[in-house]
Amino acid sequence: MKVVRSIAELPENDGMVGLVPTMGAFHAGHLALFAAAREENDIVVASLFVNPAQFGPAEDLDRYPRDEERDARLAEEAGVDVLFGPSAAEMYPAGYQTWVDVGELGATLEGLHRPGHFRGVATVCLKLFNIVRPARAYFGQKDAQQAAVVKQLVRDLNLELEIRVVPTVRDEDGLALSSRNAYLSPEEREAALALPRALATKDVDHARELLAGLDVDYAEEANFNGQRVLAAAVRIGKTRLIDNVVLEGEST
Q: How far apart are CA 218 and CA 181, in angstroms?
């Protein structure tokens, strides 16, 4: 596996390229994305970039889990060919001014509670698509709204790539895998299990009842470009977790 720090160092690729955009702190959910990309492409590129543009001023940018040595080892074992780990200055050089806004879809649910979040996501994804030039890019179903935003971006801007969405990977207790799970104490993790249990009801009223003891940002049914989901975001201590279940429409 080649580790690349700058855009100029990225190798010219002969063959079908699959891109897995990540912020690192790899877990089994990321490994599922790598496996899907490895199966369907000649070359797999994973980006490892904690994107400051998608964090709000009071969010966890500074404490977001980082362990690049471990991530590189896991990526190589998973068959990633190129690990692209640029700096913030490489992605947003001095004088940077251009941003991508995905309108109404990026302004609800996560977009409402995290203003500017999807602007940062859409912008960095478009940059990565232009830098790597993949045939396919891979995202997780846990971030259903993010995947929908990226699909909208690709459609609206006539980009020639396929967005593949891989099913959510869960621990044995049902909690969706997330890099932020590392923040949870044992007691907080037990409380967090209310989230997957609530969503498993596939009924918004019942879900809200089961989440009543938590700090809930939202628990709503949503339609993401034809995929109907029950989605929720909760805060447990200082940790914010999101999850969803598909009610109707394609989940891959």
A: 19
Catalytic residues: 30
Q: Is the pLDDT of residue 155 over 50?
A: yes
Pick from 250, 30, 240, 26: which is nearest to 117 by CA? 240
Share of the chain above pLDDT 70, in %: 98
What mean pLDDT is predicted for residues 17-38? Answer: 98
From the number of C-beta atoms within 10 Å of its C-beta (0-12, 13-18, 19+), residue 108 rates as: middle
pTM here? 0.96
Question: Could you tell me the pLDDT band of residue 252, with boundaries at 50, 70 and 90?
Answer: very low
pLDDT at 14 (0 to 100): 84
Q: Which residues contact 145 (CB under 8 A, 6 or more apart)?
A: 105, 108, 109, 110, 111, 118, 222, 224, 231
Report the distance separating Cα 221 and Cα 198, nearest Å. 13
How many angstroms separate the CA atoms of 34 and 131, rounded?
Answer: 19
Under 8 Å CB-to-CB from 233, ≥6 apart: which residues?
109, 110, 113, 216, 217, 218, 240, 241, 242
The residue-averaged pLDDT of 81-106 equals: 97
Distance between CA atoms of residues 132 and 168, nearest Å: 25
DSSP result, 165-205: EEPPPB-TTSPBP-GGGGG--HHHHHHHTHHHHHHHT--HH
